[in-house]
Amino acid sequence: MINTLVPLGVQRTNGVELTFASEVAPTWQIWAGYAFLDGEMTTSPATDAASLCRASGPR
What is the secondary structure of 27-50 as a DSSP string? Predict the structure, then answer.
């Protein structure tokens, strides 16, 4: 499979990213993180974007 770059237009992404870090003891550190991103294509020069780039994976 060959990776191909397809110019699809302009996208907008809204979301949130949370990180947490703590030192529970002098030799113990805890780090955690979570990110939620909601992307949307706002404009596209393609007449049929689905035929150019098909998403793979569960929806």
Answer: TEEEEEEEEEEEEEEEE-S-S-HH
